[in-house]
Specification:
Elements lengths: L1 H13 L2 H58 L5 H26 L7 H10 L5 E12 L4 H9 L23 H8 L4 E11 L1 H13 L5 E11 L2 E12 L8
Antiparallel strand pairs: 1-2, 2-4, 3-4
Helix pairs in contact: 2-3, 2-6, 2-7
Length: 250
């Protein structure tokens, strides 16, 4: 084996400088393509599927909320069948809420995102952080009722506390549908975009380190730019999911 390597090295050295440069470039590009195919691309596909599952669960939650709101509006004089259907909807809603909270607990909290990313970066001194900025949180599933609630939040007077009306029916009054909706959680995407410089291998190692962490963040976009060999720049957009809409400013 050693003799074979010596023969290959001798053949490489015997070539003109331009041919050696072309061969070296081909090896580097080939290695980069392998790194993308075996490390980056599978993770992007896996995380895209994860986001799809989360989005579907949140969409199902919104559908049940709409059904619950309709039933609460119709139940001015509820009968047994309507009561049973309403109770089942509430149970389904509770199951979906539990799933959403389980997803949230597996993600990096929004207020820990900067520390999480920078602590991993500090483990490799060959990497340089060029920029880091946060992205405004957005709901995973848009809700028209939620938008209306946000618009009226500053102008609506606060309701005075009081005891329930004596003899009131057990079903919620029509005005309580909105309250039930507002109490139901939505999931918010909290994003961070960071630009890192380093060798291609060091950048791949950083991505692999993110994947090894027990708490998760989701890759949204990766862009590589070759500055001057062996230095490369990587723009990475990631996000976490949280029931909390508040975003700590970096």
């Amino acid at each position: 084996m050693k003799q074979k390597w010596l023969e290959l090295a001798a053949r490489f050295d015997s070539r003109v400088r331009r041919e050696r440069a072309l061969i070296a470039a081909a090896i580097i590009v080939g290695g980069g393509m392998l790194g993308y195919s075996f490390l980056i691309k599978p993770q992007i596909i896996r995380q895209a599927n994860q986001v799809k599952r989360i989005s579907q669960a949140t969409t199902d939650l919104a559908a049940i909320e709409a059904q619950l709101t309709t039933m609460q509006t119709m139940l001015k004089d509820p009968d047994a069948a309507n009561r049973s259907a309403l109770e089942q909807s509430r149970k389904d809603l509770a199951v979906l809420e539990s799933k959403i909270r389980a997803i949230e607990s597996s993600m990096v909290p929004p207020d820990k995102m900067q520390i999480f990313l920078e602590s991993l970066l500090s483990k490799n001194r060959n990497l340089e952080l060029l920029a880091l900025k946060t992205i405004d949180p957005t709901p995973l599933v848009e809700r028209s009722q939620e938008k209306k609630a946000d618009t009226k939040a500053d102008t609506a007077p606060a309701a005075a506390p009081g005891a329930p009306t004596k003899g009131a029916p057990s079903a919620a009054p029509s005005g309580s549908a909105g309250a039930a909706f507002s109490a139901t959680p939505n999931i918010y995407k909290h994003g961070v975009e960071l630009k890192i410089a380093g060798s291609y291998n060091d950048l791949l190692m950083y991505l692999a380190e993110i994947e090894r962490m027990p708490q998760r963040i989701i890759w949204n976009r990766i862009k590589f730019a070759s500055e001057q060999y062996p230095r490369n720049e990587m723009t990475l957009t990631v996000f976490t999911l949280s029931l909390d809409k508040q975003w700590l400013v970096v």
